[in-house]
Amino acid sequence: MLREAENSLKSLNKGDISEVRSLKRPPEGVVLVLESICIIKDIKPAKKVLSYWEPGRNMLADPGAFLNSLMNFNKAELTEALVVKLKPYIDNPNFRPAKIKLVSKACMSLCQWVHAMVNYYYVNLTVAPKKAALQEAQDRLEVVEIALAKSRARLKAVNL
Questions:
Q1: Within the chain, where are the H helices?
Q2: Could you state, in order of their start, the residue ranges of all structural domains in the chain?
């Protein structure tokens, strides 16, 4: 899912993002996608109407930098609190890539990316402890291999 979302992002160009930014009255799907990305990037809504549209449009001001920021997003920044904030979007039947594609190809890719980030978070909850256990085992193995090498060297010295 993550690779698919990244490949979908790579297929976007600056014009696709500029097209989204230029919308005067964006469809609901476009708004949902930009809101979810603003939440991930910790961009606050406009205070007057608690709308993410203007802050979201500002986020798209430099399409190249925006796409690059998504491609290089530090997935370690995904927290439980962030995923809880995204849950209403993820659970929304209108926030599915297939539905979003009907209103915007660019936003479909962005929607896939948001879903992939949430999925990554949940997969990482399972994988992170296993990675830590693996690292601990590798560290212990390294210590044992060093001791074994020293013992072999001593044995070799005795046999000479």
A1: 2-10, 14-21, 28-40, 53-59, 63-71, 80-91, 97-101, 105-159
A2: 2-128
Report pLDDT digits (tens) over 32-62: 999 999 999 999 888 766 688 889 999 999 9
**Burial class of residue 40 (count of CB atoms within 10 Å of its CB; 0-12, 13-18, 19+):** buried
In Å, how far from its chain's centre is CA 158? 57
Write the pLDDT tens digit of every residue in 102-155.
Answer: 999 899 999 999 999 999 999 999 988 898 889 999 999 999 999 999 999 999
Could you give the CA distance from residue 6 to residue 121 in angstroms, rounded to a whole number? 16
CATH class of 2-128: mainly alpha
